[in-house]
Amino acid sequence: MTDNDRHPTDSEGISRRDILKTSGVALTGTALAGCMGGLSNSSDLERDSAVEAIEAKLPDYYPDEYWQTVAQAQQEEGEVSFYTSHFGSFSESIAGAFNEFAPSIDVQPVNLPTAKVYQRFSSEAAQDIWEPDLIQTYDAPALSQLNQQDAMLNYDSPEKEHYDDMWKSDDGAILANNYNPYSNAWNPSELSGNPPGSLESLATAIEENPSDWDGGFAMYDGQLSTSMWQTMLQWQEVYGKETMTEHIKTLASANPKTFWSTSTMGEWVASGEVKYGVGLAQFILDAYVRPDYGEDQLMWDSADDVISNIFLGGYNIVKEPDNPATAKLFFDWYNSPRGQIFLANNWNVVASHDQVSASDVESEYADLGPMIHSNIDESTPFVWGYDKLSKSGAQKTEMKDLWYRQFVGGGWFPIRLNGNGRRLTSRFRVIFPVIPPLSSV
Fold this sequence. Notes:
The chain is of the alpha/beta class. The chain is built from 18 helices and 12 strands. The strands form 3 sheets. Strands 4, 5, 6, 7, 8 and 9 form a 6-stranded mixed sheet that branches. It has a 4-stranded mixed sheet with strand order 2-1-3-10. β1, α5 and β2 (about 105-110) form a beta-alpha-beta unit. It is elongated.
């Protein structure tokens, strides 16, 4: 998964390809809002024309008293901030689209690598410091830990009833509701024959012609990328652990180029530096790489074995936000049909809201049709939501260790010590000193 690929901006009325032609565009909210000041108490709230303009954009199932949330956000707070592992242009486009919905709010995104979102926020929360109003991370186990540590607000949103339980915590809070399918990408000018459509077919192609594939394909770094361990977890369910491990060994024997950024690996494929990319983020290929390369240089399609998904996570309100009403307004907009349709049409992110239909969404993926959950879910059993991935912490560690052993340690375990300081043994030969890089991504 990419963490922070690029940094232009976007809005509801600007296509993501237009975004690529700009850089450093100021956020609408920052330009318009400034410091709005605060009112002394809630009795000073007014249902003025600005409040009514936002109310007119709300779904009809919002309660009438919601106007007070809107009024407090605009008249007393006027700003909202968040930590996010979305890459720069993605988060800034979300901020810009929110500003079309609520023009007077100053939106302040802070882009951080996936691991840093958790590390920085959890460290601050432990000291009772609540710097952002919301946080977003790709890492479901990390999100689960924060939820269990009582670091986030279980907000009773009017959007809650419009999401399946797979997107919620055990206590019913919406924590994550978006994903994007992966794609196998290839360079038609460099790859002869049909591209491998699955892990198994790629492993077979390597075994049949190892010299042709040596160094010729790219895949996510399993230590630095959330995407790789999630993909391996899905491969394990398709093939079984033993067969999946053998296929992984075959891939490792071909010395692939590995990295954590889809845009970088996509450019490797399109430029001919490699001819194939395994399971890359389709929405990033489309947004960042496709505009600069033709179909004779870059193509992609869904996999034959797993249409695996990038778990994007949602924006979650921290336990004690400085701007509680604005945080709720942002959260509700993001999870509303308006916010979900924006994400689907501008970033090819799958919308899972039960009132977003195929007619609302223009973006399509491969032969699956519009980017709504029902279309993707019907085609694969491996659309995993927060309910499953949040409980996969131990499997996350196992998959990362497996990747490390094969791609860095040559199939050997690194030295590990038990609680008494004694070396643990295994059927693999132990080598020293090999210490895996520290990463919780």
